[in-house]
Amino acid sequence: MARTRLYRDGTLVLEDFPVADISDHLADPSSVVWLDLCMPGPEDFAMVGEEFGLHELALESARNQGQRSKLDHYRTHEFLSAYALFVDPRSGRLSTSEIAAFITPRALITVRKDDRFDLEALVARWDESPDLTRYGVGFLLYGLLDHLVDGHFEAVHAMDDSIEQLEDLLFQEGRRQIHAVQRRSFVLRKSLVGLRRVVLPMREVVNSLMRPGTHLVPEPLLPYFQDVYDQVLRATEWTESLRDLVTSVMETNLSVQANRMNLIMKKVTSWAAIIAVPTAITGFYGQNVPYPGFGKEPGFIASSAVIAVSSVLLYLAFKRKDWV
User: Where does the UniProt annotation place the signal sequence (predicted)?
Assistant: First the structure.
Protein backbone atom coordinates (compact mmCIF):
# COMPACT_ATOMS: atom_id res chain seq x y z
CA MET A 1 0.00 0.00 0.00
CA ALA A 2 1.49 3.33 -1.08
CA ARG A 3 0.30 6.90 -1.12
CA THR A 4 1.97 9.75 -2.97
CA ARG A 5 1.79 13.52 -3.27
CA LEU A 6 3.60 15.97 -5.52
CA TYR A 7 4.19 19.61 -4.67
CA ARG A 8 5.58 21.98 -7.28
CA ASP A 9 6.58 25.55 -6.43
CA GLY A 10 4.72 25.25 -3.12
CA THR A 11 1.47 24.01 -4.66
CA LEU A 12 -0.09 20.55 -4.50
CA VAL A 13 -0.36 19.52 -8.15
CA LEU A 14 -0.76 15.72 -8.06
CA GLU A 15 -1.82 13.02 -5.65
CA ASP A 16 -1.82 9.20 -5.61
CA PHE A 17 0.33 8.87 -8.70
CA PRO A 18 2.28 5.65 -9.36
CA VAL A 19 5.46 5.18 -7.36
CA ALA A 20 7.33 4.43 -10.57
CA ASP A 21 6.79 8.05 -11.68
CA ILE A 22 8.66 9.54 -8.72
CA SER A 23 11.97 9.74 -10.60
CA ASP A 24 10.36 11.66 -13.45
CA HIS A 25 8.81 14.15 -11.07
CA LEU A 26 12.01 14.66 -9.09
CA ALA A 27 13.78 15.57 -12.32
CA ASP A 28 12.10 18.96 -11.92
CA PRO A 29 14.11 20.96 -9.31
CA SER A 30 10.94 22.70 -8.11
CA SER A 31 9.24 19.40 -7.17
CA VAL A 32 8.83 17.93 -3.69
CA VAL A 33 7.45 14.40 -3.21
CA TRP A 34 5.80 12.64 -0.31
CA LEU A 35 5.68 8.86 -0.38
CA ASP A 36 3.95 6.77 2.29
CA LEU A 37 4.37 3.02 2.63
CA CYS A 38 2.24 0.93 4.98
CA MET A 39 3.76 -2.37 6.15
CA PRO A 40 6.11 -2.60 3.13
CA GLY A 41 7.88 -5.78 2.11
CA PRO A 42 11.55 -6.37 1.26
CA GLU A 43 10.98 -5.51 -2.39
CA ASP A 44 9.45 -2.15 -1.39
CA PHE A 45 12.46 -1.29 0.75
CA ALA A 46 14.79 -2.29 -2.07
CA MET A 47 12.89 -0.06 -4.50
CA VAL A 48 12.90 2.93 -2.13
CA GLY A 49 16.55 2.47 -1.26
CA GLU A 50 17.56 2.42 -4.92
CA GLU A 51 15.24 5.26 -5.92
CA PHE A 52 16.39 7.68 -3.24
CA GLY A 53 19.88 6.38 -2.47
CA LEU A 54 19.11 5.52 1.16
CA HIS A 55 21.72 4.08 3.50
CA GLU A 56 21.41 0.37 4.26
CA LEU A 57 21.50 0.99 8.03
CA ALA A 58 18.57 3.40 7.74
CA LEU A 59 16.65 0.82 5.72
CA GLU A 60 17.41 -1.82 8.34
CA SER A 61 16.13 0.47 11.10
CA ALA A 62 12.94 1.08 9.14
CA ARG A 63 12.40 -2.68 8.70
CA ASN A 64 12.94 -3.59 12.36
CA GLN A 65 10.31 -3.13 15.05
CA GLY A 66 10.84 -1.44 18.40
CA GLN A 67 13.28 1.29 17.38
CA ARG A 68 13.99 4.07 19.85
CA SER A 69 12.66 7.52 18.95
CA LYS A 70 15.67 9.07 17.25
CA LEU A 71 17.08 11.13 14.39
CA ASP A 72 20.06 9.63 12.53
CA HIS A 73 22.13 11.70 10.11
CA TYR A 74 23.53 10.22 6.89
CA ARG A 75 25.40 11.82 4.04
CA THR A 76 22.41 12.28 1.71
CA HIS A 77 19.46 12.08 4.07
CA GLU A 78 18.20 11.80 7.65
CA PHE A 79 16.31 8.95 9.26
CA LEU A 80 13.57 9.63 11.82
CA SER A 81 11.97 7.04 14.10
CA ALA A 82 8.94 8.05 16.19
CA TYR A 83 5.68 6.73 17.61
CA ALA A 84 2.02 7.60 17.63
CA LEU A 85 0.37 6.92 21.00
CA PHE A 86 -3.08 5.64 21.92
CA VAL A 87 -4.54 5.33 25.43
CA ASP A 88 -7.61 3.28 26.33
CA PRO A 89 -9.71 5.71 28.43
CA ARG A 90 -11.29 2.88 30.42
CA SER A 91 -8.28 0.79 31.37
CA GLY A 92 -5.46 3.30 30.90
CA ARG A 93 -3.50 0.87 28.74
CA LEU A 94 -1.01 2.42 26.32
CA SER A 95 -0.49 1.20 22.76
CA THR A 96 1.86 2.56 20.12
CA SER A 97 2.13 2.74 16.36
CA GLU A 98 5.69 2.98 15.07
CA ILE A 99 6.50 5.21 12.12
CA ALA A 100 9.81 5.76 10.32
CA ALA A 101 10.68 8.59 7.94
CA PHE A 102 13.47 9.17 5.43
CA ILE A 103 14.12 12.88 4.96
CA THR A 104 15.87 13.95 1.76
CA PRO A 105 16.27 17.47 0.35
CA ARG A 106 13.23 17.06 -1.92
CA ALA A 107 11.34 14.03 -0.59
CA LEU A 108 9.76 12.74 2.60
CA ILE A 109 9.23 8.99 2.75
CA THR A 110 7.15 7.71 5.66
CA VAL A 111 7.02 4.04 6.59
CA ARG A 112 4.19 2.85 8.83
CA LYS A 113 4.72 -0.43 10.67
CA ASP A 114 0.92 -0.92 11.02
CA ASP A 115 -2.30 0.73 9.87
CA ARG A 116 -3.29 2.38 13.17
CA PHE A 117 -1.54 5.66 12.43
CA ASP A 118 -4.14 8.27 11.40
CA LEU A 119 -2.80 9.23 7.98
CA GLU A 120 -5.89 11.23 7.02
CA ALA A 121 -5.42 13.53 10.01
CA LEU A 122 -1.83 14.15 8.93
CA VAL A 123 -2.87 14.99 5.37
CA ALA A 124 -5.61 17.28 6.68
CA ARG A 125 -3.02 19.09 8.82
CA TRP A 126 -0.88 19.70 5.75
CA ASP A 127 -3.89 20.99 3.82
CA GLU A 128 -4.77 23.40 6.63
CA SER A 129 -1.53 25.35 6.05
CA PRO A 130 -1.27 25.96 2.29
CA ASP A 131 0.80 29.11 2.89
CA LEU A 132 3.64 26.99 4.30
CA THR A 133 3.88 24.48 1.46
CA ARG A 134 6.49 26.62 -0.29
CA TYR A 135 9.01 25.45 2.33
CA GLY A 136 8.98 21.94 0.85
CA VAL A 137 10.21 19.02 2.90
CA GLY A 138 10.61 21.22 5.99
CA PHE A 139 6.88 21.93 5.89
CA LEU A 140 5.99 18.24 5.48
CA LEU A 141 8.30 17.32 8.36
CA TYR A 142 6.80 20.00 10.58
CA GLY A 143 3.28 18.68 9.92
CA LEU A 144 4.36 15.13 10.74
CA LEU A 145 6.10 16.07 14.00
CA ASP A 146 3.32 18.41 15.05
CA HIS A 147 0.76 15.65 14.50
CA LEU A 148 2.81 13.11 16.46
CA VAL A 149 3.56 15.44 19.38
CA ASP A 150 -0.08 16.52 19.63
CA GLY A 151 -0.93 12.83 19.89
CA HIS A 152 1.63 12.47 22.69
CA PHE A 153 0.03 15.38 24.52
CA GLU A 154 -3.44 13.88 24.12
CA ALA A 155 -2.12 10.56 25.47
CA VAL A 156 -0.65 12.29 28.52
CA HIS A 157 -3.96 14.09 29.08
CA ALA A 158 -5.85 10.78 28.86
CA MET A 159 -3.44 9.25 31.38
CA ASP A 160 -4.09 12.18 33.71
CA ASP A 161 -7.83 11.58 33.47
CA SER A 162 -7.30 7.87 34.25
CA ILE A 163 -5.29 8.75 37.35
CA GLU A 164 -8.05 11.11 38.51
CA GLN A 165 -10.56 8.26 38.18
CA LEU A 166 -8.18 6.09 40.19
CA GLU A 167 -8.07 8.71 42.94
CA ASP A 168 -11.87 8.62 43.14
CA LEU A 169 -11.73 4.86 43.75
CA LEU A 170 -9.01 5.17 46.36
CA PHE A 171 -11.18 6.01 49.36
CA GLN A 172 -14.25 3.99 48.42
CA GLU A 173 -15.16 1.11 50.70
CA GLY A 174 -15.38 -2.42 49.46
CA ARG A 175 -13.15 -5.28 48.51
CA ARG A 176 -13.85 -4.82 44.80
CA GLN A 177 -12.60 -1.22 44.90
CA ILE A 178 -9.37 -2.32 46.60
CA HIS A 179 -8.62 -4.81 43.84
CA ALA A 180 -9.58 -2.26 41.18
CA VAL A 181 -7.15 0.31 42.60
CA GLN A 182 -4.32 -2.21 42.74
CA ARG A 183 -4.91 -3.48 39.22
CA ARG A 184 -5.30 -0.05 37.61
CA SER A 185 -2.31 1.34 39.52
CA PHE A 186 -0.14 -1.39 38.02
CA VAL A 187 -1.53 -0.82 34.51
CA LEU A 188 -1.05 2.95 34.73
CA ARG A 189 2.48 2.64 36.06
CA LYS A 190 3.36 0.28 33.20
CA SER A 191 1.75 2.63 30.67
CA LEU A 192 3.66 5.60 32.05
CA VAL A 193 6.94 3.73 31.65
CA GLY A 194 6.11 3.14 27.97
CA LEU A 195 4.95 6.75 27.59
CA ARG A 196 8.19 8.04 29.05
CA ARG A 197 10.27 5.92 26.67
CA VAL A 198 8.51 7.54 23.71
CA VAL A 199 8.13 11.14 24.87
CA LEU A 200 11.53 11.85 26.41
CA PRO A 201 13.69 11.10 23.33
CA MET A 202 11.52 13.43 21.22
CA ARG A 203 13.19 16.41 22.90
CA GLU A 204 16.51 15.51 21.32
CA VAL A 205 14.85 14.69 17.98
CA VAL A 206 13.21 18.10 17.60
CA ASN A 207 16.21 19.90 19.07
CA SER A 208 18.53 18.21 16.55
CA LEU A 209 16.37 19.37 13.67
CA MET A 210 16.62 22.99 14.78
CA ARG A 211 20.39 23.02 15.18
CA PRO A 212 22.29 25.21 12.71
CA GLY A 213 23.96 23.24 9.96
CA THR A 214 21.29 20.58 9.44
CA HIS A 215 19.67 22.64 6.63
CA LEU A 216 16.43 20.71 7.15
CA VAL A 217 14.41 23.51 8.66
CA PRO A 218 14.20 26.79 6.75
CA GLU A 219 14.56 29.85 8.95
CA PRO A 220 10.89 30.95 8.53
CA LEU A 221 9.82 27.54 9.93
CA LEU A 222 11.98 27.75 13.06
CA PRO A 223 9.19 29.34 15.16
CA TYR A 224 6.88 26.47 14.19
CA PHE A 225 9.46 23.86 15.19
CA GLN A 226 10.08 25.80 18.40
CA ASP A 227 6.35 25.48 19.16
CA VAL A 228 6.61 21.72 18.61
CA TYR A 229 9.62 21.65 20.93
CA ASP A 230 7.66 23.52 23.62
CA GLN A 231 4.87 20.95 23.30
CA VAL A 232 7.41 18.16 23.71
CA LEU A 233 8.76 19.79 26.87
CA ARG A 234 5.26 20.18 28.29
CA ALA A 235 4.43 16.55 27.55
CA THR A 236 7.74 15.46 29.13
CA GLU A 237 7.20 17.46 32.31
CA TRP A 238 3.60 16.28 32.56
CA THR A 239 4.71 12.67 32.14
CA GLU A 240 7.23 13.02 34.97
CA SER A 241 4.62 14.56 37.27
CA LEU A 242 2.14 11.78 36.46
CA ARG A 243 4.78 9.21 37.27
CA ASP A 244 5.21 10.76 40.72
CA LEU A 245 1.44 10.98 41.10
CA VAL A 246 0.93 7.27 40.38
CA THR A 247 3.63 6.43 42.91
CA SER A 248 1.83 8.63 45.44
CA VAL A 249 -1.47 6.89 44.69
CA MET A 250 0.10 3.48 45.23
CA GLU A 251 1.65 4.59 48.53
CA THR A 252 -1.64 6.14 49.63
CA ASN A 253 -3.45 2.92 48.76
CA LEU A 254 -1.07 0.98 51.00
CA SER A 255 -1.62 3.49 53.81
CA VAL A 256 -5.40 3.28 53.42
CA GLN A 257 -5.25 -0.51 53.58
CA ALA A 258 -3.02 -0.35 56.66
CA ASN A 259 -5.44 2.06 58.34
CA ARG A 260 -8.37 -0.21 57.51
CA MET A 261 -6.48 -3.18 58.95
CA ASN A 262 -5.72 -1.22 62.13
CA LEU A 263 -9.39 -0.31 62.45
CA ILE A 264 -10.42 -3.94 62.02
CA MET A 265 -7.86 -5.11 64.57
CA LYS A 266 -9.04 -2.44 66.99
CA LYS A 267 -12.65 -3.58 66.69
CA VAL A 268 -11.74 -7.26 66.99
CA THR A 269 -9.64 -6.53 70.09
CA SER A 270 -12.46 -4.52 71.67
CA TRP A 271 -14.98 -7.30 71.16
CA ALA A 272 -12.48 -9.83 72.46
CA ALA A 273 -12.09 -7.73 75.63
CA ILE A 274 -15.87 -7.62 76.08
CA ILE A 275 -16.17 -11.38 75.62
CA ALA A 276 -13.28 -11.97 78.03
CA VAL A 277 -15.28 -10.61 80.98
CA PRO A 278 -18.06 -13.25 81.03
CA THR A 279 -15.47 -15.88 80.15
CA ALA A 280 -13.40 -14.95 83.19
CA ILE A 281 -16.41 -14.86 85.53
CA THR A 282 -17.89 -18.14 84.34
CA GLY A 283 -14.45 -19.72 84.43
CA PHE A 284 -13.97 -18.61 88.02
CA TYR A 285 -17.30 -20.04 89.09
CA GLY A 286 -16.55 -23.21 87.21
CA GLN A 287 -13.80 -24.13 89.70
CA ASN A 288 -14.41 -27.32 91.68
CA VAL A 289 -14.58 -25.41 95.05
CA PRO A 290 -17.48 -23.86 96.93
CA TYR A 291 -18.04 -20.12 96.46
CA PRO A 292 -20.55 -17.58 97.87
CA GLY A 293 -23.98 -18.52 96.57
CA PHE A 294 -22.82 -21.96 95.45
CA GLY A 295 -25.79 -24.14 94.51
CA LYS A 296 -28.21 -21.29 95.21
CA GLU A 297 -30.32 -19.10 92.95
CA PRO A 298 -28.97 -15.74 94.30
CA GLY A 299 -25.42 -16.76 93.33
CA PHE A 300 -26.48 -17.38 89.73
CA ILE A 301 -28.35 -14.08 89.60
CA ALA A 302 -25.37 -12.20 91.03
CA SER A 303 -22.88 -13.68 88.57
CA SER A 304 -25.20 -13.03 85.64
CA ALA A 305 -25.67 -9.43 86.74
CA VAL A 306 -21.92 -8.89 87.04
CA ILE A 307 -21.42 -10.30 83.49
CA ALA A 308 -24.17 -8.10 82.02
CA VAL A 309 -23.10 -4.89 83.77
CA SER A 310 -19.38 -5.38 83.02
CA SER A 311 -20.04 -6.14 79.34
CA VAL A 312 -22.31 -3.09 78.96
CA LEU A 313 -19.79 -0.80 80.68
CA LEU A 314 -16.95 -2.06 78.45
CA TYR A 315 -19.08 -1.65 75.33
CA LEU A 316 -20.00 1.94 76.26
CA ALA A 317 -16.38 2.77 77.07
CA PHE A 318 -15.11 1.37 73.74
CA LYS A 319 -17.96 3.01 71.84
CA ARG A 320 -17.08 6.38 73.33
CA LYS A 321 -13.50 5.95 72.08
CA ASP A 322 -14.76 4.75 68.68
CA TRP A 323 -13.19 1.34 69.10
CA VAL A 324 -16.35 -0.55 68.19
Answer: none
